[in-house]
Every structure is written in C-alpha cells, then in structure tokens.
Amino acid sequence: MSEEANPFESLQEQVDDASAYLDVSPDVLERLKNPERVLETNLSVEMDDGHLEVFRAFRSQFNGDRGPYKGGIRYHPNVSRDEVKALSGWMVYKTAVVDIPYGGGKGGIVIDPDDYSESELERVTRSFAKELRPLIGEDKDIPAPDVNTGQREMNWIKDTYEKLENTTAPGVITGKALDSGGSEGRVEATGRSTMLTAREAFDYLDKEMEGATVAVQGYGNAGSIAAYLTEDLGANIVAASDSSGAIYNPDGFDAREAKAFKAETGSLSDFDGATEEMSNEDLLTLDVDLLIPAALENAIDGDLANDVQADVIVEAANGPLTPEADDVLTDRDVAVFPDILANAGGVTVSYFEWVQNRQRFYWTEERVNDELERVIVEAFEDLIDAYESNDVPNFRTAAYVVAIQRVVDAYEQGGNWP
Ligand SMILES: NC(=O)C1=CN([C@@H]2O[C@H](COP(=O)(O)OP(=O)(O)OC[C@H]3O[C@@H](n4cnc5c(N)ncnc54)[C@H](O)[C@@H]3O)[C@@H](O)[C@H]2O)C=CC1
Ligand SMILES: O=C(O)CCC(=O)C(=O)O
C-alpha cells in the first residue's frame, strides 16, 4: 500500500491538471488552489462528569467568488486542517459544476461522536456554533451536514446562531429537520445525485442498468440511498460495506432491507440477505458493473486501482480516489464519474432549502426531486460537452474544466479590489 495521499495536495493536483486546458494566469491559479481563510479553534467543553475536554475544530472558506461559502461540517477523529481545506475546495468546484450561486467552504471537529453522550455532543456543537458565528450567515457562509452530522446538529447550530443574533435566520444552515425549516428531499439528495449520475453515465456509455451489478463502499447517508435508488432503476446491489466490514451476495440483496438492518443493529454484519462477508478491500476489487465509493477520501490508491475490476465508478464520497488511482484507471479505461458532480445533489437541495427559507415558501418533494434531476442532467451534459470538445483524459478533468472556467469568469468580472 502506498503512502496515504494528502487530500489537499490531491485537490491542488486536480485543479492544476484541468487548468492546463484553460487560459488561467499563474496568479489566478494560486487563488484557485488555496483557501481564502481557515478558522482553527479549540473548543473547551464540559463533559457530563464535570471535567473539561478540548476539541480541535476548523472552518475553511475556500472561495466566495460565485456566492456565499457553502459546505458541510464533519465529525470524525481523522479531521485535519488539510482535509478540511481539501473538502472546502471540492465544494467550490462542485457548486460551480452544477452552477448554483455559491462558493465553497467546509468545517470539521476532531471527535469520534460514538464516544460522547447526546448532551455532550450538543455542548460541543453549540460551542462550535459560537466560534462560527462571526463567519457564518445567510449571505456569508452556510454550513450543512457531512460525515457523522445530520439534522440534529444542524438544528443546534441554527438555534445557537439565532439566539446569539436575536433573530430568525433559518437559511444560516441547511440540512435541518423539516419542522425547523428543512427541505423535503434533502436527506435523499446526495444519493439521488449519485443515482442520476450513474443513470446518465450508463446511458452515455451504452450500458444497461437493468441487471447491472453494483458494489457500494460506505453504507451511510450517501451510500445506502444511492444503493436503493439505483436498485429502483433495475440494478442488482451485490455488495456493501461500512467501517466494520463488507457483505456480499452474488445474486443481490434488498438495499432498503440492508439499510433498515444497519439502522437497527448499527452494522451490516450478520445481515441475512448476504451470503458471505468480505474485507473492504475485496469489495473495492469485485468484478461488478458499477462501483460506488461512498465512505471517505483515499479509498482507492494507485496500487489498489490496478486491481479494480468495475467497469464504471461513480463517486458518492468526496475524494475517494487518489490522483495516482485516477491515472491508473484512466490508462485502464475505467470510466470514473467524479464526486463534484455525482454527490452534488446534497448541496443542490441545500440550495433549494435556502431558497425556500429566504422566501418562507416551501416546495413539495416532487418539485424538489424534479428540480434536482434537471440540475444534475444539465451538469452531466455540460461535463460531456467539455469531455468531447477538449482533449482531456477523463471525466474528472472535464468536470474541473467546466467548473474552473465558471469560477474564473466570476472572479474576473468582479474587477480589482486590493
Ligand atoms: N451527507 C451529505 O449530504 C453528503 C456527503 N458527502 C460525502 O459522502 C461521504 C459519506 O458521507 P455520509 O454518507 O454523509 O456519511 P455517513 O456518516 O452517513 O456514512 C459514512 C459511512 O461510511 C462508512 N465507512 C467509514 N469508513 C469506511 C471504510 N473504510 N470502509 C467502508 N465504509 C466505511 C461508515 O461506517 C458509514 O456507514 C463523505 O465523503 C461525504 O463527504 C458528499 C456530499 C453530501
Ligand atoms: O449541503 C451542503 O451544503 C454541502 C454538502 C457537502 O458538504 C458536500 O457536498 O460535500
């Protein structure tokens, strides 16, 4: 196994690769590769037994040329400054490729939420919200969920912000519960964009989705929903994994039942729809029609990429392939459809949530899903146009060509400000 890639360096390499196909000056390129600012703070929080614990937390505001900074907040022991910088950069190019009026940001706390009670997590989250308060706002920076955060944490942040500001501002954060100003369809939105990208990709590549075999790495919000929506298209989910291991059934299993089993027991192991258990690495190298990495960065590195047998990869996770893996898979003609499009449903429906919050007028789930489908299909078409009209090596570079041009246009149209 090669040395773990630094996600921030991976992002920078992706931007460099695509900029070579565009007329971008070296100084503008520096802007495109580095965050505008990063908050790094220590949260001192009282635990249930009275002792104080300190948690390192970050918020990176990468680029705001196209609108307010936008992006999730992650709770994970491996959160680092460089990871948050990378994730915030990917948000810039994600919001640009689907052409919604946002920049990119991301935050995180170094914490394993499984080790803390709900009241401790609430105090940690409210403490982070207090630190974030000067930076965030409905027109400034709008956080959202990511790994290990969801409606509960978003509601705590909204409540803290509104109390400190003595106002109502539901659009300060997205991914909220419905009763707190959330949007229909947000919970499913990330997986839905992965399904839509896979559907469009199979169509473009003249592949049949009916009966296609699918393996999903990471069976959380993004992965499990991508799995059952792809199953609804006629595909056969044959393997899935979470942090405790992978399950497999060559004849396929019911993706919704697997999700319900994990929700009930906390893991996929012993799910009776599976015929065998396997390692996470074995799942990633299964001979399937479609592989959906939906866990964390660097799931597939250059070494493992040589063993990947899937025909098509659609990335639900952010940054699951290292640049070396990309090179190997490009050489091996494996079609990779990138994260910045394939998981953009989350931020797109976050945008719809924010629009609804600003208008105090709420949409039906059908309207949300129809608008999301329109956005993803149009973005897919833009990506294919860029792929076919530039001599780019793969779909990722094509997506960045589209996205970078939009960010550069917005920056240049802004004129000079010292
Ligand atoms: N939740 C959202 O709206 C969005 C999430 N994403 C990305 O999707 C990915 C997953 O996020 P969520 O589904 O929200 O998180 P989640 O916390 O709901 O689920 C993550 C899943 O990955 C599993 N996992 C962790 N390490 C693993 C490993 N080494 N092998 C296999 N499984 C492993 C966990 O057990 C869990 O089932 C992340 O890269 C996130 O940034 C991207 C866009 C939006
Ligand atoms: O919903 C959002 O605003 C951002 C979701 C997110 O963090 C992501 O797309 O990686």
How would you explain this protein's 3D organization?
- This protein is an alpha/beta fold.
- Among the domains are: 35-171, Rossmann fold, CATH 3.40.50; 188-337, Rossmann fold (3-Layer(aba) Sandwich), CATH 3.40.50.720.
- The protein is built from 15 helices and twelve strands.
- The protein binds 1,4-dihydronicotinamide adenine dinucleotide and 2-oxoglutaric acid.
Please write the CATH class name of the domain at 188-337: Alpha Beta
Low-confidence stretches: none
Summarize the amount of helix as a percent range. Answer: 40-55%
Average residue pLDDT: 97
CATH superfamily of the domain at 188-337: NAD(P)-binding Rossmann-like Domain
Strand pairing plus helix content: what structural class? alpha/beta
Percent range for β-strand residues: 15-25%
Sequence of strands across the biggest β-sheet: 9-8-7-6-10-11-12
Distance between the termini: 46 Å
Major sheet: size, sense and barrel closure?
7 strands, mixed
Using the coordinates shown, work out and report the CATH topology of the domain at 188-337. Rossmann fold
